[in-house]
Amino acid sequence: MRFRAGPYSEQFSSVRTIGGGRIFGMTEKFYSYPVRIYWEDTDAGGIVYHANYLRYMERARTEFLRTLGLEQRKMQLEGAPVIVVSTIEIKFVRPALLDDALTVKTRIKLLRRASIVFEQTIVRGEEIICTAQVRCASVDMKTGMPTPTDARILAAIEKYTGSPLP
To answer: Domains in the chain and their CATH numbers?
Structure first.
């Protein structure tokens, strides 16, 4: 897998409908978030503790949304639905070590009515450290129930991909 320099790579997107529901097969365009490994990130052997990868991915998703003009705390205070992790599937390939310079590559894989699936890969140079698929649900804070994704998020994703949403 090759990654180009800069925050985004090329994009390819497609739209399809399955069972009457809208699914937007997203882009190959990705956001890059740098991470340096410190002592606090490692176990006694100097290897990154597994739960820290989730922290790096969370930060990358948050900063990715911020680059799209979406400030989650501000939107929450305005009463918009919040984006919460509902499922994570992660595969650890190689260990990251003390002082490694990593990059978290984040892309939107799938957009549904009330959820977004992010594909995230942590790399050290060209070497894959771990990969994950993270499904985030749009949730109404008052009811705790899934709700359609906020229109501002949809508009930002449409602008980012350069493709109209169905």
So the answer is: 14-161 (3.10.129.10)
